[in-house]
Protein 1
Amino acid sequence: MFYFPAMAESDVLRAPHVIEYTYTRSTGPVIGAFLTGLRDGKILGATTPAGRVVVPPTEYDPITSEEVGELVEVGQSGVVRTWSWAAHPLKDQPLDRPFAWALVLLDGADTAMLHVVDAAGPEAMSSGMRVTARWRPAGERIGHMKDIECFVAEGAS
Amino acid sequence: MAAASGGRRPVAVVSFAQSDMVRREELRNDVEVLQPVIVDVFEKVGLTKDEMGFVCSGSCDYLVGAPFSFVSALDAVGAWPPMRESHVEMDGAFALYEAWTQLQEDDIDTALVFSFGRSSMSELGRVLTLQLDPYYVAPLWPDPVALAALQARALIDSGRYTEADFAAVAARSRRDALNNPHAQVKGEQTAEELMGDDYVVAPLRRHALPPITDGATAIILAAGDRAAELCERPAWITGMDHRIETHSLGARDLTTSPTTRRAGEAAGVVEVGDGSGAPVGVGVDVAELHAPFAHQELILRDALGLGEAVAVNPSGGALAANGVMVAGLVRIGEAASRIMDGTAQSALAHATSGPCLQQNLVCALAAEPAGDGRR
C-alpha cells in the first residue's frame, strides 16, 4: 500500500504556459476593407438590403443574415449608447489610465461599435453624450481597431 | 421545429451530483475533481458506466490551456470498453441538449452528461475575451465584467431597474446559498450593506459579479419506462430549446433577452402571443436561472415572464457559484432536484453562454411527462 501525504502549498510545481493562436486568417472583402479604412483614417459601414448601415461591418446582416451590399463611409463622431467605467485598466486594454468602455453609434450608422472613451472620470460620462474619434498618427496605423486610439467628448480634442 | 419533443419518447433527469464549488482546486486535477462526482451520480441510481447508452460532456480546453483536455477527463468515467461518447466545447447544459435529442430516439435508454472546469487555472477575464469577435472586439481586450457593465448601464438607463435592485438580487442569492452545501459565496448581508461594495467596473459593484469557481457536475438522463424504474420521481423534460444572438454587441438590445424568450416559448414555459405585450410565464414552481451577473437575473425574469410566485434560484444561482462550463448544467440539476425531492411539481432551468447573455438555453421540467400520451 502506497501512501501519499497531501502536498504542502510550497511543494506545488508551477510552470509558465503560453497559449498562442498560430493561424493566419484572411479578413475578406468586408472586414478587410474596414481595417484598411482604419489605416487610412476612415470608418466604413456595410449597407443591408433594408438600407441599414452596420458598423463595424459584417458580411451579413447581423439580424436577418442577408448578404450586405456596398460599403459606405460613416461619421467619425457619434452618440454613446451605453458605457461602463474601468477604474483599473487591465493588460492590453486600449488605455493605461482609467477610461470608459462605450458602445458608440456613429453618425450615419444603425448599429453601435465598441470602443473606449478617454474621460477625466465617470462624472464626465453619460449615455447620449457625443464623442469623436481620436486617431493614432497616420504613420503608426496598421489596420487594427486600436488605430482609433480612443474616443473623446466632442469639442474636447 | 425540432425543439419540442412532440411524438418522441419522454426523457427525464433521474440523478444529479456536483462537487463542492470552490475558489481554487489546486491539488486535484480535472479527473480527480470529476471522479467522485461520477461515482456519486451513478450510485444514486445503482448504475454503472457500462450501462450508459451515451456519454456527453461539456468543458473548455482554454481554462487549463491544454488541447483535448476533455479526452483525459474521460478517465474519470472509464474509457474502456469503448462507449458512444461526444463532447461540446460549451457548458454541460448544451451537452445535455445533445443527449436529450439522442434519447428521444429508441435505440438507447440512458445517458451520462457531465461537465467540469477549473476557472482558477488561468486569467479568466482574458480567456473569456478569446470567445469574442476576433477582429472588432477581442483586439480591445474587454473583460467580461466591462461588457456586462455596459449591459447593466443600458438596463439602468431604460428606467426599469436600479443598482439597488442588483444588490437585492445578490443579497437574496447569498442568503439562499446558505442552504446549499456546495455553494461558494453565501451570507446574510442585506442589500443595503452590499451597496457599500466598491465598483469593479461601474455600474457593477463587487456583489453583482460571479465568483471564480472550480468544480464539476453530472446528470443521468433516462427515457420512457427506464426513467420510472430508476427514480421514484423523475424530473421529466417537457421541452427544451436554445437560441443565439448576433456576436455584434452593438446590434443587440442588451436590456432584453429575445433568445431566452424564444427558447422559453419553444420549451413551453412562456406565452408570447403576438409579441406586442410582455411575455407571460406559464407558472412554474421553481426557476433556476444562469445569470452570472446580478442584473442579468432581472433581464431573464422579464424575458420568461416569471411572476412573484416563482422561486428563483433557491440554490443561490450563479452569483453563489459560477463554474465556467458547469453552472448551466448545475441549474438543470438543481431544478430537477426540486422535482425529484417533491418540493416542486414544475420547474425551468436556464443556461447561458457568450457575452451579455448572447446564447440561451431553456429546459422545462415537470413531475409528469408532457400530457399527450407520449409515455
Protein 2
Amino acid sequence: MTPSHNHNSNAQTPTGPTSRLVGILAEFSSPDKLVHACEQARHAGIRRMDAYSPFPVHGIDPAIGIRRTRLPFLVLAVGLSGLFLAVGLQYTVNATDSIGPFPGYPFLISGKPLFSLPANIPVTFEVIVLSSAFAALFGSLALNGLPRFANPLHRIPRFKKATNNGFFLMVEAEDPNYNPRQIRNQLEQWGADALEEVHLDLTDHKLPAFVKMLFILMLALCTLPPALIYRARGDSHSLPRLHFNPDMDWQYKSQAQQVAPNIGASEDKPEWLFADQRAMRGEVAGTVIRGRLKDDAAYFTGVASGAEGHAELAEIQQYVSTSVNQDAATAPPEPNWLATFPARFAVTPETIARGKQRFDIYCAVCHGTTGSGDGMVNQRAMALNALQRANWTSAKSLHDHTVVDQPVGRLFDTITNGRGTMGPYKSQISVEDRWAIVLYIKALQDAMTDAVAQDDDGNWVPVRTTAPAPTAPAPTDTEPSAPESPAAAGGDASTPTGATVDQAVPAVANQSSAAGGEAADTASENSGRTN
Amino acid sequence: MHAVKKTKVTSPNVSLGDTGGSLILLGGVGGLVLIAASFALSFFMANGITSFLHVYLVNFLFFISISLGALFIVLVQHLTKAGWSVAVRRIAEIMAGTIPYLALLFVPILLSVIAPSVYGAPEYLLYLWANTTYATEVLSPDKVAYYLNPTHFAVRAVVYFTVWIVLARYYLNRSRIQDENGDHNLTSRMQFWSAPSVLLFAITVIFASFDWSMSLAPIWFSTIWPVYFFAGGMLGAFCTIILILLMLQKRGILTEDVTEDHYHDLSKFTFGFIFFWSYIAFSQFLLIWYANIPEETIWYRPRLDGGWRWASLVLLCGHTLIPFLLMMPRTLRRNKNYLWYAVIALLAMHWYDHFWIVMPQMFVSFQDLGALGVEGMGTPKHIFGPVEACCFLGMAMLYAAFFCWEAGDRPLIPLRDPRLVDSLNHKVH
C-alpha cells in the first residue's frame, strides 16, 4: 500500500484551523467493484489514492497503478555494502598489523593463510544475509513512512470494516486532479456505496504520555552499559568471575594428567572409571597414531632389519645410562647398525643440499659449519671453561676417525637419541631430514679425508690413517666393556680406547665414540690426533 | 477477478503428433552412430575404452540425474498437493518415464565392472576398485568384500533401477489413466503413495550416487555427496522441463496452457537449486579444506592443481556466481527468449559438473595404478574434445528419442487432473 504523505499541505484545503482535509473515503460492497473503481480513478488521472480490503485482492496493484518498488535495489546496495564490510573487516583484522588507527590481529589458524577467502566466505555470507534482511525490513518500513503514531482513518468508525467485510478507496486531497466538488459524484458513479471525508485533527498532535515515558526510559537504559564499562575500567576483583555457561566452564571431561573420574557411589569408596586411576589412556590396541607408523625399521631407527629389538633397547638404555651411573657390564650390546643408507632415503644432490641446510641450523652451532667441533657455542663454552666458569664437554669433531668410521645408522641414532651430553633431536628434526644430515656429514667427512694435520712432533700426517671404509658392521660382542657410561669412561676408559685405536679395529672405534663422558671423548680425540 | 476463468485445456495441440515419430528414428539411429563414433575416436585421441567409459559415465550421470530430478519433482507435486504445476507435470512424468531406457544405457558401465573378473578384460576400465591389484593392495578387504565388489554393485544397481522404474511407471500410468476416466481417486492414491515413494527415492539415490560417482575415488568419502548429486540433478531437471516446454511451444504445442507464470515458477525453482547446489558444493569444500585431513583433501588436490584449477573456477563462476545474478530478476524469469539461453547454459554447467567430478579421477587412477606397478599405467594420453562431444550429442539424441517414444501421440498435459483448473489460471503476483 502506498504511503500517504499528508504534510506541508495546509494551504490547499482550508477546512478550518483545527483540522485539515486529508481526502475522501469511499466504501464499496465487493472487491470487483473496488478494482473497477480504482481503474476508473486512474483513468480520471488520479494518482494519489490507496485501497483497503480485508484480504489481498488480485489485480489491485495494476488497477491502482502502484509502481514497482525500489526496495530490491536498496537491498542489493546494502547487501553489497555488507560484502565489502565483511571482507574488509576480516582482511583488516586477520591479515594486517594495522590499518590507520585500527589495530590488526594476524593470527595463524591451522596453517591457513592469514587472508584466505574460503574461510572468509561463511562470515561474509552471514553478514550479507543479515544486512540484506535488515535493509528489506527497515527499508520497507521507511518507504511506507512507518511507523506512524496515528492515522486519521482510524478515527472513522466505518473504516473498522476494512478488516472484516469493507472495501475502501481513499483518494487523497493532495492529488493535483482532486476536485472537491467533482470527486463525490465521480466516486458515486464508480459504484461507491458510501462516502466520507477524512480530516486530520490538528489540535491533538502531542505524543501520548506512555510513549514519552518509554522513550525516556530507553534513553536512560542506554546509558547503563557505558556507565558500567566506565566503572569497571582498570578495576580488579577478588571474587571469581560469574559463570554464565556452567556447562561450558565445567565440562564433564577428563584432562591430561588428571585422575580418572570416580564413578562410585561415594568419596569414601571410590570406584575409578579406569582401574589404573588415570584419565589418560594409551593407544588402542592394534592402532597407530597418524604419522607415527614406523613400518620400516631401518629407515626409522638406523638399525639393519631383523635387529629392531636392539634399537628399542639401545634407545631405552641410552636414557638410563645418561641419567644414572651404570655398570659397563650391563650395557646393552651394540645393535646391528645400518652401514648404507636405507632404501627409502634417496641419496641425491638435493638431499645433500637439504642436509647442509638442516646441519647449518641444528648442528653447526656446536659442531661448526665444517664439522670440526668449532661452533660458536663451543668456542664460547671453551672460553668459559678456561676461566673456570663453566664445565662444558667439548663438541666432537666429526672428522675424528671415531666418528668417520661410524656406520650411517649409528650417526642417525646419535642425532635421533643423542649421545653423552648431546641431546636427542628426534622431536626437532624429521626422519627424512636426519638422514639428509647424516648424508651431509658423510660428504663433509669425505671432503676432509685427505686433509692433513700436524702431529705432536710437528709432522704433517693425514688426519684419517687407520680405519677402513665403514662397511663392516660392528661385531657387538668383541668388546663388552665399551665405555658407554661416564663412570666407566671417567676411570679407565682412556686405556682401552687408546689400545684399540692402535689396533685399528673399527668395531672398537665405533664403540669408543659412543662414550658418554667427557673423559672418554677427550681421550679418544687425543688418541685420534696423536695417531 | 473479472477475467474469465479457464476451465479446460485450450491449446490447439496437446501432443507431439507426427514430429515424435521422425525424432525417434533420427535420435535413435543418430545417437547410436555418434556414441559408436565416440568409442572409435577414443582409440585415436585417448586411452581407448578406459577414456570412452569415463566420458560415457559423465553423460550417463548427466541424464540419469536429470530423470531422477524429474521423478522427484513428480513425487513432490503429489506430496504437497501442488496446483500450480499440474500443467507442466506431465513433462516431468515422461522424463522420469525414460529411466527404463536409461537402465539399458547403464549396461556398458555394469559390464566394465563385471568384465574384468569374468573375462579378464584390461586392467583398468572405469572404477579403480574393480582392478584386482588395487583392490587387494590398497583397499581394505572388508570394503571389497561387503561394498565395493562387482556382484554387490550389480545387485544394488538392479535394486535402484527397479525402485525408480516402478515409481516412474506408477505415476505416469495413473496420470494417463486419469486422462481417460477423470477418476479423482487416482489423485488421492498417488498422494497417499508419494510419501513412502520419496523415502524410497532418497535411499536409492543416496547409494546410487555413492556407487556410481563417489566410488570413482574408492578410498575417498563425503557424506554430503548424495545431496550434491541430487541438487545438481534437480537443477538439471527444472532446466530440462523449461527447455522441453520452450521447444514444444515453438512447435505450436501447449501454446495456451503453459503461460509465462509457469515459466516464472519453474525459473524460481531453477534459481533456488542454483543456490542450493552452490551451498552444498561449498559446504563440502569448506569442511574438507578447513579440516585439512589428507584422506579427505586428496579428492580436491587434483582438481585445484595445475590446469584443473581453472576448470574449478569455471564451475564456481558458471554454476554459481553468474547464474545467481542472471536468474534473479523477475522480468528475466518471465522472458521466454531469455530462458532459452539461460537453461541451455545451466544444463551445460550441470554437464560440466559431472565432467569435473569424473574426468580428473581418471588421471589420478592412472597414476595410482602406475605407482602400484600395473603395466601400461602412469600417464594417460587423453585429448579433450571430440570424444566428449560425440558421446554427449549421441546420448542427448538418444534421450530425445526416449522422450518422444515415451510421449508418443498421447497428451503432454494431464487433461482431467482435479487441480488442472488451478494450474491453468495460475498467476504469479
